């Protein structure tokens, strides 16, 4: 089963089509090449290092809460 995780974009490098996203204290560089436009502060669904879609902050919070309840995330990542 594949799982995409919501994360917040904290920085962008448009030249290389990459972004740094944060999930709690964890930060990771990902590709944004599959999306037309992304800005700092957006929430994106991340799967295997690629942003697949932008989502609302509310949807990201709901998804992270459900993942935490299912034991897939620690409390820190769900906050």
Automatic annotation (TrEMBL):
Pfam families: HupF_HypC (PF01455). InterPro entries: Hydrogenase_HupF/HypC. GO terms for molecular function: carbon dioxide binding; iron ion binding. Gene3D superfamilies: 2.30.30.140. GO terms for biological process: protein maturation. Belongs to the HupF/HypC family. Involved in the maturation of [NiFe] hydrogenases. Involved in the biosynthesis of the Fe(CN)(2)CO cofactor. PANTHER family: HYDROGENASE MATURATION FACTOR HYBG (PTHR35177). This is Hydrogenase maturation factor HypC. It comes from Aestuariivirga litoralis. The lineage of its organism: Bacteria, Pseudomonadati, Pseudomonadota, Alphaproteobacteria, Hyphomicrobiales.
